[in-house]
Automatic annotation (TrEMBL):
Coiled coil, from the record: none
Keyword Transmembrane helix assigned: yes
PANTHER family, sorted: SPHINGOLIPID DELTA 4 DESATURASE/C-4 HYDROXYLASE PROTEIN DES2 (PTHR12879), SPHINGOLIPID DELTA(4)-DESATURASE DES1 (PTHR12879:SF8)
Keywords from the named record: Lipid metabolism, Membrane, Oxidoreductase, Transmembrane, Transmembrane helix
Protein name from the UniProt record: Fatty acid desaturase domain-containing protein
Keyword hit for Chaperone: no
GO cellular component terms attached to this protein's record: membrane
Fatty acid desaturase domain sequence ranges: 41-263
Listed transmembrane segments: 44-63, 83-100, 187-206
Organism: Euphydryas editha (Edith's checkerspot)
Pfam families: FA_desaturase
Recorded family membership: Belongs to the fatty acid desaturase type 1 family. DEGS subfamily.
Length: 297
């Protein structure tokens, strides 16, 4: 939708001044967990990583999504946003902040473009993982497909800030291993990986753009998991107004409810994962794909 009918939506543009404090609190929580996790057994560490640490790390990934849109400090302070992205990235264990932004902004501009939008699964994925068991395995391996697919499908030369992101992250990881040991590093990394696979908060990966209703490309979810994911569930609203921070997306829906209330929506991210695996009509191929119309060389 456009904002012509509701110009007051433009007043929601900008950044949420509370966002940086929420993210800082999550990062510091993970820091505080390190000396506690250090003395736990591996089974407890893995359970804690799935139920607690992974939830925080996934939320930090979605904070990085907000930061990619310059919603931490605003569009007039891009370097502040990039530096804060490095900080939010630390507990995740893998440098993603700059690389994610490089590809994600293209996803908004060229959604569904068969060449440019690396959010689209490859034809190989669609063919290999089309059965119930295959789809289950595909979701378990989602963090690897999500992070490696762009490098295979649309490789780009690394930006200087990507190298800075890498150096800072490796330095932080080395300090964690040196001071607290591999178990704590495992807690951070395992949490990041598990929370992107068979996990309730990971349901948004599938709920956002997989075609559960023919002809509908983007779906919103308005349930309680939005509280810990910066309202990423308000996905139609986000694509319509990417300059509105997540905390204000419910207000977009309230103002322009006539545009959103009748669209297909998901009630549960866990149900989305279950239905995706069990429904033979849905799979990695259930996406709207557009032909790429580039300039002829």
């Amino acid at each position: 939708m456009s904002y012509e009918k509701y110009p007051e939506i433009k007043k929601l543009y900008g950044f949420d001044p509370m966002f940086k404090w929420v993210v800082t609190g999550m990062v510091l929580t993970q820091f505080a967990m390190m000396p506690i996790v250090q003395h736990m057994s591996w089974p407890v560490v893995i359970l804690l990583a799935y139920c607690f640490g992974g939830v925080i790390n996934h939320s930090l990934m979605l904070a990085i999504h907000e930061i990619a849109h310059n919603l931490a400090f605003g569009h007039n302070r891009p370097l502040h946003n990039r530096l804060f992205g490095f900080f939010a990235n630390l507990p995740i264990g893998i440098p993603i902040s700059i690389s994610f932004r490089k590809y994600h902004l293209e996803h908004h501009r060229y959604q569904g473009d068969e060449v440019i939008d690396v959010d689209l699964p490859t034809l190989l994925e669609a063919k290999l993982f089309c059965t119930t068991g295959g789809k289950l395995l595909w979701i378990i391996l989602q963090p690897f497909f999500y992070s490696l697919r762009p490098l295979v499908v649309r490789p780009k030369p690394p930006q200087p800030l990507e190298l800075v992101n890498l150096v800072i992250q490796l330095f932080f990881d080395a300090i964690v291993i040196k001071v607290f040991g591999w178990k704590v590093m495992g807690y951070l990394l395992i949490g990041s990986l598990l929370s992107m696979g068979i996990h309730p908060v990971a349901g948004h990966f599938i709920s956002e753009h997989y075609m559960f209703r023919k002809g509908f490309e983007t779906y919103s979810y308005y349930g309680p998991l939005n509280w810990i994911t910066f309202n990423v569930g308000y996905h139609n609203e986000h694509h319509d107004f990417p300059a509105v921070p997540g905390s204000r997306l419910p207000e977009v829906k309230r103002i322009a409810s006539e545009f959103y209330d009748d669209l297909p929506q998901h009630q549960s991210w866990s149900s989305v994962i279950y239905d995706f695996i069990m429904d033979p009509e849905i799979g990695p191929y259930a996406r709207i794909k557009r032909k790429h119309y580039g300039l002829e060389s």
